[in-house]
Amino acid sequence: MQPEAFRNHAHDLVEWIANYLDQTGDYSVTPQTQPGEILAQLPALAPDQPEAFEQIFADFEKIILPGMTHWQHPSFFAYFPANASPPSLLGEMLTSALAAQCMSWLTSPAATELEQRVMEWLREAIGLPKHFEGVIQDTASTATLCALLSARERASGFSINEHGFTGQRYRVYASSEAHSSVEKAVRIAGLGSTNLVKIPVDSEFALQPQALQTAIETDRKAGYTPLCVVAAWGTTGSTALDPLAEIADICEREQLWLHVDAAYAGSGLILPELQQLAKGIERADSIVFNPHKWLLTHFDCSAYFVRDAAVLEQTFGLTPEYLKTAIDRQVNNYRDWGIQLGRRFRALKLWFVLRSYGLVELQQLLRNQINWVQELANDIDAHPDFERLAPVPLNLVCFRYKPEQIAEAELDDLNANLLASLNATGQLFMTHTRLNGVYTLRLVAGQHRTRREDVQAAWEQIQTTAQGLLANRV
Predict the structure, then answer these.
(1) Which domains does the chain have, with CATH numbers?
(2) I need a labelling partner for 324 at 20 to 30 A (CA). Which of 75, 99, 101, 408 fits?
C-alpha cells in the first residue's frame, strides 16, 4: 500500500470508527450467528494476487461485523467488561504506528521509563506502599503464573530453574471460588493440579482463614511444602472479597508467598472507601489487577506489583550476549520481569487514559456504577419473585428468578431459559455462574458507556421476560 493510499484509507477508517463509537448502542449486543456461518463465507485458501482495500473492508462489514459481540455496548452486562475508551484507542493507534518492540530500555527508552512512571502513578492511586514496584503484563493469568514461578524459585533457592524439580512437593492454596487461571498456572508451573488445595468459603463466598490454616498444618504433617496462597479480592463468580489481613497473618507466620488476584475489582482501589475493604493487601508479595477491565484501557493491560523486584528478575532474567547493553545495570529491562521477551508499548494507552480523565473523573465513574448496581440489588430484594444470591460489595449482582409456584428442582432450568431468552433478543448480554451449586444469573454494570437508565431498562426487561416464561408454563 502506497503512502497516499494509506492516508486516504486511514482517514476513512477514522470516520468509520468515530461513527461506530457513537452508534455502538444501536447494534445487537450479541450476533445472531450460528457456528460455522462466518467460516463458510471465507475462502479456503489465501489469495494469490493482491486485493483492493475497498473490497477487503467491504468484506469486513459484510462478513465480520455481523458476527461480532459488541463489548463496548452500554447493555453489555456479561463476564467482566473489557473497556476501550476513546483516549485509550488513540493511544493504541500510536502504539501500532510506532510498532516498537519494547523488551529492554535500549529498544525504546521512552517506553520503559513511561511504564515505570505510570506504574508509580497507579501504585499511589490504589494506596500501595512505595516499596512496591510495578510492571505491565498482558493478562492477570500471566501475572498469576509469574507469581507462582517466583514463589517456586524463592522457596527452592532458585534451583528449579537450573536443575528442575528434585523431589519438592509444593502446595498452593486458593478458595473454591478462585479463578480457573490459578489452576492453569499451577499446571504450567509444574506443580500439578492435585497440589492446588481449594479452601472452603464462608456464607459470603470468601475464603475461610481458619480452614486455610488447618490445610497448611495438615499438609506439613503429610510431608508437603506449603508454597503460596492466592487470595481473591473480587472473585469472578460474585466479586467476593477474601479477608486479606487474616490471610497475610497466616502467610507471614508460615512464610508463604501471598499473591492477591484483584483482576477485576482492583481498579476499584482508586476509591479510598474501597481501600478500607482491602486492608492487608500492602503485606502481599504480589498483586495484579487489570486496567483493561474496569479502568477504561484497551485489552491487554494488566498491572502487576511486587514487593521485591529482585525475586522477579532472578526468576525470569536470562541475558544472552546479543541482548547485553552497557547500561543494563542502570535501567529496568522489563523483559526480565515476566515471561515474554517481546513486549508491546502498553503504557502509552494507560498514560492517555489517566491524563485524559484524571483520577477524580475515573473515581466518579466507578462510584456511579457501584451505586446503580446497589440500587438494582435493592430492587431484586424487594421483588417477591426474585432472589439475590450473594452480597454486592461492588457493581456485580448475582440473583435468580424464583416464583413461589415453581419447585426448587425446576429453578435451574427456568433461569437458564430466562438467560437464553434475554440474550437472544440482542438487547442485552448477561452470563451465569453457580453459587452453592445453584444456577445464578450475573449482571455487572462496568462498561463505561453504561448509564443508570441502561441498568434500569435491563431490570425491566428481565422482569417482563421472566413473567412471560412463567405464563407460558402455566
Answers:
(1) 91-353 (3.40.640.10)
(2) 99
d(CA 419, CA 465): 9
Instruction: Please state, in angstroms and rounded to a whole number, the distance separating the CA atoms of residues 423 and 429.
Output: 5
Give the residue with greater pLDDT, 441 vs 328.
441
8 Å CB contact between 298 and 292: yes
pTM for the full predicted model: 0.95
